[in-house]
Specification:
single chain, 231 residues, alpha+beta, Rieske Iron-sulfur Protein, 2 domains, four-stranded antiparallel beta sheet, 5 helices, rod-shaped, binds FE2/S2 (inorganic) cluster
Length: 231
């Protein structure tokens, strides 16, 4: 007996079912169909068989096999046609996408690494300023003596922590690392403090942050002049 890899009814099986003489004949054909699929009878196969059954019993609506056969052939032809059409659309779509990408290569528009954030008085002492978190991935923190620019990248695996004002800490949502407003890590798996960026006063009196220059606590760089701005 031929074993079918695919579950859907073949045209021959449909023909056999439609031509079944009576219900006992119908059920023996169904058994054969099942056997060909190693006894597997999934829902969509059952649905297909049920559909034919409902047209067959109690009143047989499949009067003219010749008409039905031509319909089945047409259906399968259209099926192949649509598969062919989809393949064609996929292939040409891929080709044109590649062409367009070639003509307009990927350009990543990143915010500038060096930017002005305003005047020292725009920042309140004891506050963590969140205004540049989204646009530049930087927190600006001011205390009584200085202003610092902290990186928003968690030193564990790179998630973005949130500032929790009530607890006065940055809390990373990924694995729970906690950082003080100074950037020092004190809980969770983060192995080192947040990084600080270069922060200086520009000629016009505004504060300039430069992300191309980083200062790491563990390397003893937080004491360097450009790692904080004295106020
Ligand atoms: S990435 Fe922040 S704790 Fe893991």
């Amino acid at each position: 007996m031929k074993i079918y890899r695919y579950m859907k009814l073949t045209k021959e099986e449909k023909k056999l079912l439609i031509k079944a003489k009576d219900e006992p004949d119908w059920y023996s054909i169904c058994d054969d169909i099942k056997d060909r699929r190693n006894g597997i009878y999934p829902n969509y196969l059952a649905r297909e068989i049920l559909q034919i059954y409902q047209n067959k019993f109690p009143v047989d609506k499949y009067k003219d096999w010749a008409i039905l056969e031509s319909q089945l052939d047409r259906k399968s032809f259209l099926g192949w046609l649509s598969i062919g059409w989809l393949a064609f659309v996929g292939a040409t779509g891929g080709f044109f996408t590649a062409m367009i990408r070639f003509l307009f290569p990927n350009v990543l528009f990143e915010p500038p690494q060096s930017f002005k954030i305003g005047f020292p008085n725009d920042f309140e002492s004891g506050k963590v300023d969140l205004r540049f978190k989204k646009t530049h991935n930087v927190w600006i923190v001011r205390d009584d003596e200085k202003i610092i620019a902290l990186s928003t990248v968690c030193t564990h695996l790179g998630c973005t922590p949130n500032w929790i004002e009530t607890d006065r800490k940055f809390k990373c949502p990924c694995h729970g690392s906690g950082f003080r407003s100074s950037g020092i890590n004190f809980e969770g798996p983060a192995p080192r403090p947040l990084e600080r960026y270069k922060i200086v006063m520009a000629n016009d009196g505004q504060i300039l942050v430069d992300k191309t220059k980083k200062f790491n606590y563990e390397k003893g760089e937080w004491g360097r002049s450009e790692s904080f701005l004295k106020v």
